[in-house]
Amino acid sequence: MLQETTTAAAAGGNNAEALQQMSFAHLLQNFDTVGWIVFITLALMSVMSVYWIVMNFIKNMRLRSTSDRVISTFWETPNAQDAIRYMEEQSKSEPFSKIALDAAQAAAHHQRHEGSRLVESLNRSEFVDRALRQAVTRESSRLEDGLTVLATTGSTAPFVGLLGTVWGIYHALIKIGATGQASIDAVAGPVGEALIMTAIGLFVAIPAVLAYNFFTRLNRVTNNKFDTFAHDLHDFFATGSRVGEIGSKR
């Protein structure tokens, strides 16, 4: 009985020691240079992805709350100058007002240079169309800020974590071979500890992938709004008639 009690106590001590070796704190204490590089890389990826997730979420929510108001106010304002003045009063980060202002500036610039080579080479419709294309491309590119970071994090973080795991298991096996202890208690701790790096890599990658897909979908909807608004602006500044006016005059 005493021998069984002693054996159970020894086994319990070994299990407790193995569990302690599988802890995150123990992992940090046994990092070498490569381990620290992998861990710091994953930490930086996590910080950058969280930053861009928050920034893109705020940007998209703000854009969603103001876009319809800006568009409807522009078309509902009877006087074109008042509508343009309203656009000038919008925030610098508001894209629809910038697109409208670029179209208005292009139309005014073309009108001021009537009789010049500019007017001869491009008519009013073509000149406004070119300005609108450039404005939509610019604002669409700004919508994608941070998406490259999220895509890179989502695709590479699991492999960075796997690199840390492989390196940790390699050192664990070397340590086990040096001590001559090949029991499950001796193997479970170091190997389980190394596997934590894979878990960290997945923890960093999964939110980045989900956020990338979410923001890509939101940007697609916003880009469709850009195109629709730009087409309406082109008709307005090229013909001088607002949306719906041409059809109502027929």
Automatic annotation (TrEMBL):
One of its GO terms (cellular component) is plasma membrane. It is a multi-pass membrane protein. It comes from the Bacteria. It is found in: Cell inner membrane; Membrane. GO terms for biological process: protein import. Keywords: Cell inner membrane, Cell membrane, Membrane, Protein transport, Transmembrane, Transmembrane helix, Transport. Coiled coil: none annotated. Belongs to the exbB/tolQ family. Involved in the TonB-dependent energy-dependent transport of various receptor-bound substrates. Protects ExbD from proteolytic degradation and functionally stabilizes TonB. This is Biopolymer transport protein ExbB. It comes from Lysobacter daejeonensis GH1-9.
